[in-house]
Amino acid sequence: MVDVALGLQEEVTSMKWSLQELEKYRESPLKLQETLDLTAVLKARDHTISDVSPVKVQGLITLDQALIIAHLDVQVTLTLPSTRSLVPVALPLAFSVDEIYTRQLTDLDEHTTAETVIYLEQDVLDLDQVLTDNILLQIPSKILTPAEAANEQEMPHGNDWQVISEADYQAQQAAKANQVDPRFAKLKGLLKSDDDQN
């Protein structure tokens, strides 16, 4: 909900509509500009998330025959631990969600080849669930602090162990491949002397 006169945007608790409610938007699309609090839901689904900013959603929901088409632009900042040092990292996410929903499984042939059509089991379109799923899918497997990403920070290490970058590991493996084992170096010398004698 938007208060245009004051320029304030209040936080919405839910983005759910019955299909009957959506019918009034058959002629013109439902325009969305909402701010949601999905903190509890996201933290419950991913325990590594320590904080979630309000989720800003802009988009359209249009009805086309038996189809409900949603286009959403989403912005949120998650606080997650660094995958290297476990230091909290603010991870801003901005992405789009384009999905098609239906309550009827007939006459979908034209859409099933190019796009996935999601069947609604109930007569409710729940965008909270859609947003939660898509936010969790956007979390990368590697999260680093700015210093870690710039390689300015020393890698974690301890007695007889250290974390090394993938590039350092590959360089070590290449050096090992070129290095000859001293035990076999003596054998190589024996083979040369045998060839010289023959």
Give a brief rundown of this model.
The chain is of the alpha+beta class.
Protein described:
- The chain has two domains: 148 residues, no CATH class; 34 residues, no CATH class.
- It starts with a strand and ends with a helix.
- Strands 3, 5, 6, 7, 8, 9 and 10 form a seven-stranded mixed β-sheet that branches. It has a two-stranded antiparallel sheet with strand order 1-2. Strands 4-11 form a two-stranded antiparallel sheet.
- It is 30% helix and 34% strand.
- The N terminus is likely disordered.
- With 198 residues, it is an alpha+beta fold.
List the keywords.
alpha+beta; two-stranded antiparallel ribbon; single chain; 198 residues; 2 domains
How many helices?
7
Shape: elongated
**Rg over CA atoms:** 28 Å
Proportion of residues in extended strands: 25-35%
- Provide the number of structural domains: 2
Number of strands: 13
Instruction: List the helices and strands in order.
Output: EEEEHEHEEEEHEEHHEEHH
Percentage of helical residues?
25-40%
User: What is the distance, rounded to the nearest whole angstrom, between the alpha carbons of the first and last residues?
Assistant: 94 Å
Low-confidence stretches: 1-9
Instruction: Report the average pLDDT across residues.
Output: 81
Structural class: alpha+beta
Q: How is the main sheet built? A: 7 strands, mixed
Protein name: Nucleic acid-binding protein
InterPro entries: YceD
Pfam families: YceD (PF02620)
